Amino acid sequence: MNRNRVIELFTRKLTGEATPEELLEYQQLLKTEGETALHELMENWWNNKPHVKDAYQSDSDQHFNQILTTATADEIIEQANVGGKSSKIIKNPSLKKWLFAAAAIFIGLIATFQLGVFKSTVGSNFQNNVIVAKRGTKSKLILPDGTQVWLNSESKLTYGSSFSDSIREVTLDGEAYFDVVKDKRHPFIVRTSAISIRVLGTAFNVKSYQQDPTIETTLVRGMIEVHKNNEPNASKIILHPNEKLVYNKPRAITEIATGTIPTTSQLISISTLPKNIADSARKETSWVYGRLVFDGDSFTTLAEKMERWYNVKITIKNNTVANYRFAGVFENENVDEAFKALQLIAMFKYTINENEIIIEK
User: Fold this and answer.
1) Has domain 117-277 been given CATH number 3.30.420.40?
2) How many angstroms from the chain centroid is the CA of residue 14?
3) What is the pLDDT of residues 71-101, one digit of tens each?
4) CA-to-CA distance for 195 and 193, rounded, in angstroms?
5) Rounded Cα–Cα distance for residues 59 and 63 (Å)
6) 291-360 maps to which CATH number?
7) Per 3-state DSSP, what percentage of the chain is helix, strand, and coil (rounded to 5)?
8) Of 86, 203, 274, 285, which sits most exposed with the smallest number of CB within 10 A?
9) How far apart are CA 152 and CA 157, in angstroms?
10) Which pLDDT does position 108 carry in this prediction?
11) Which of 268, 192, 211, 279 is CA-nearest to residue 236?
């Protein structure tokens, strides 16, 4: 769609990443009346947000957060209504509705470009958009349909250029929280390495790191369908709010078993979570609120979470210490403060050398 391409090229122009060919393509697209209107809308909003421009010049991460917290599609349209040709454009109700949707896309693309995590990979027949949250960071983005996605550390989300044309489909490697815009005509599908999740409009968390032995999905509200990728004709599993599905990867199981393929009952388990716990306090969704919650985790498991959270490498040299179990919450602590807090629960020694931490008895 032209408007998506206009928005993408506009953001590349702002960040200085546009090639001469892309700048020429941008100028050609602007010859279309509707695309010119969108350009004026974006340019007017950008130029009238001085605090955002200052953030862009000084700190791209701060700029990203400011855009996500201060910019709305309403605000952009309102800003564009200040004189000039844009005020004439907004008088058209149907065009205003179109520009409202485009503005939401603009926010999401601008945000991901400023973090330096938006990439495009071109295949034979389509173009993929790839958004990456680096180790030790988290990202929030808005997809072209208005769906909000939070990406946890060391995660990657991929979607094609045809997103929302028929089926809204994304591929996830890592962990993400989705708040999906409801659209009965266009189902939303999240694909992982072993399972796929189909929704219409709902909020849920998916954890699917390649190195983890399990894939997890937790439903916050609405309803989702889950099925295994290698059994497309099998019955779908339906999850309701406060239910969590855990898929045990066969390879991880067979490595410690006899080599036989596990049954379906061994692969998938579903549990019901307490209803009286806030999302910010659940270990499955607390990361979205900047809180690392651990409840009975072994030191080995907790160390893996802390590696992603703090962008460090943790080595535990003592098996007894590796099996220690911890419960607690990290929110504003730096990595040294976090380890000092853990020492109040269990006795162990550690040394920090830059981003590498060695733990011993």
Assistant:
1) no
2) 23
3) 444 444 444 444 444 444 444 454 444 455 5
4) 6
5) 6
6) 3.55.50.30
7) 35, 30, 35
8) 274
9) 10
10) 54
11) 268
Q: Which helix (H) or strand (E) holds 209?
A: none
Per-residue burial over 61-100, b = 16 or more CB atoms within 10 Å of its CB, e = otherwise:
eebbbbbbeebebeebbebbbeeeebeebbeeeeeeeebb
Residue the block writes with tokens 């498991």: 301
Instruction: Extract the tokens encoding 15.
Output: 């960040």
Q: What integer pLDDT is reported at residue 221 of this predicted model?
A: 93
CA distance 69 to 53: 15
Model pTM score: 0.67
Residues 144 and 160 sit within 8 Å (Cβ to Cβ): no
- Please report the pLDDT score of residue 79 as a whole number: 47
Q: What would the two tokens of residue 40 be?
A: 């004026």
User: Looking at this protein, which amino acid is placed at residue 344?
Assistant: L
pLDDT in tens, 7-35: 667 766 665 556 777 788 878 877 764 55
Half-sphere exposure of 336 (CA within 13 A, CB side): 5
Structure token digits, residue 83: 């004189």
Write out the two tokens for 200.
Answer: 């219409």
- The strand pair at 188-191 and 168-179 is best described as parallel
| 169: enclosing H helix or E strand | strand 168-179
Strand, coil or helix: 158:
strand
Instruction: Give the start-to-end residue ranges of the domains of the chain.
Output: 1-115, 117-277, 291-360
Q: Are 100 and 77 in contact (CB under 8 A)?
A: yes
Q: What is the pLDDT of residues 324-357, one digit of tens each?
A: 999 999 998 999 999 999 999 999 999 999 899 9
